[in-house]
Design goal:
262 residues, alpha/beta, Nucleotidyltransferase, domain 5, 2 domains, 3-stranded antiparallel beta sheet, 8 strands, 44% helix, Transposase_mutator
Length: 262
């Protein structure tokens, strides 16, 4: 979807591709790799390459939307917020227009064809099945993007590959939202009878939903990063670094030995 926005922004500069017709002063010259900042993350993308007619250096033409995202970190956060809210609510059709408007792409460039193509690709990605994946570990975590709270389910298969299994708008303390997310995973091919490890942020609603949908026999582990963060919240600043280092070192040891170090 972000790559679609870059294409739309490039079209505003160079016009659409016109096979068999004479190009304007700025032409399309394939694609090139780039990186877009999204909040604290960086997303690798492929973006169109534009060049002015003529020989020599200095002919590269920048894509306005790409440059805007590089220069203004707030745009990346807003785009991620729109994407997370749209995907979690299954409102795929509104994602591309809202994201395009955020980076200054005119409404006239956002055609029905682009919206439908973006909607279909997001739908296929977010509603794909996992019957053929041997998911051994499921991470469940509540994440905040701007004003949007989202619960994310991330799976790790038997070969070590990660898969975004699903997400829902809402806090991890919301029992109804958590249950709906786990029921969706089962409907999309995650076998509730298979025993697997769940890693959670400590929410009682998460633990209750896991027991209800997948059964109480599954091992559930508290996320270490969340545990460290919670401890840090109770400490004065001058003790945080030492406590964090001690906890991280203890986590690397065998259980009994690690407990003795805390």
């Amino acid at each position: 979807t972000i790559e679609a926005i870059l294409v739309l922004s490039a079209r505003e500069v160079a016009g659409g591709k016109r096979p068999g017709k004479k190009a304007g002063p700025i032409g399309w010259h394939g694609r090139q790799k780039g990186v877009v900042p999204l909040a604290e993350r960086k997303l690798r993308v492929e973006k169109p390459r534009l060049r002015r007619k003529g020989k020599g250096r200095g002919k590269e033409v920048q894509i306005p939307a790409y440059e805007a995202m590089l220069m203004n970190s707030a745009l990346g956060r807003r785009i991620l917020e729109i994407l997370m809210r749209g995907v979690s609510n299954r409102n795929y059709r509104e994602i591309l227009p809202q994201m395009s408007q955020t980076v200054g792409v005119s409404k006239s460039q956002v055609s029905r064809e682009f919206i439908e193509a973006s909607e279909q690709s997001l739908k296929e990605l977010c509603e794909r099945r996992f019957d053929d994946k041997d998911i051994l570990v499921i991470y469940l975590d509540g994440i905040q993007f701007g004003q949007v709270h989202v619960i994310v389910a991330l799976g790790v298969d038997s070969e070590g590959y990660k898969h975004v299994l699903g997400l829902r708008e809402g806090a991890s303390e919301n029992a109804t939202v958590v249950r709906e997310l786990l029921e969706e995973l089962v409907a999309r091919g995650i076998d509730p009878e298979q025993r697997r490890l769940f890693v959670i942020d400590g929410s009682k609603a998460l633990r209750s939903a896991i027991d209800s949908i997948f059964g109480p026999a599954n091992p559930v582990q508290r996320c270490r990063n969340h545990k460290i963060k919670n401890v840090m919240d109770y400490l004065p600043d001058d003790l945080k670094d030492q406590a964090k280092t001690s906890m991280q070192a203890a986590f690397r040891l065998e259980a009994k030995q690690g407990m003795s170090k805390l």
